[in-house]
Amino acid sequence: MAFGRKPKTVSSVEKSTEKKVRFKEIRDAYALTKQQKPLILIWCLLIFIPVEILGIVIGKALNHPIYIGILSVPLAFLAAFFFFTRVAGSAAYASIEGQVGAGASVLMAIRRGWTVTPAVAVTRNQDMVHRAVGRPGVVLVAEGGQAVRGLLNDERRKTERFAPGVPVHEVIVGNYEGQVSIRKLQKHMRKFPKKLTNNQVRELRARMKAVGGLNIPIPKGPMPKNIRMPKR
Prior knowledge:
This protein is α+β, with helices and mostly antiparallel strands. 53% of the residues lie in helices and 12% in strands. The chain has helices at residues 10-36, 40-61, 65-96, 102-108, 148-162, 185-189, 198-211; strands at 115-122, 128-134, 137-143, 168-173.
């Protein structure tokens, strides 16, 4: 009988791939954050070290400085990593704010539940409308100047023609009254009530796929959804 390593199961291969992807996401997020905040590593250390020192002090008071100190390492790491995720999220938004297609980039970063078609309508002035399909129905997300309202109305009529009876929501990305800032767009999308079943969503996606969209460059870069806390 030949001795050797056991072949990897599908689940172990998937876990290995997931770890590699997660590591790459964190590495990319760190590279982007460092461009915006060059002292990010020092800031993280300034959180990690005090938490670890506090653990050692508590350990000394309990006559177990080494044991408590070791237990404090994961806690200190989580505290520093939580701070990093907050700063990295802000840096990710700052890197795309003001760029054409920034709204689509944020929409496509939503983890689950939505199928996004960027730039289903665009003007010469780069006003544009993106379409997201999910259980709340169809959400039309517009970004641009004054002409974007007309563009949004045209797209709504087209959507209602292809998917009659389906809830259609409108969002305008911006920092003025009645608009949703790019930083709050994901949170705003999660507030829409879920009106459709999974089967209805699949049928709706098939219908809207026939409507299609345009092919434009979308700002790339790690968005907040890519930064995940390590499993305990």
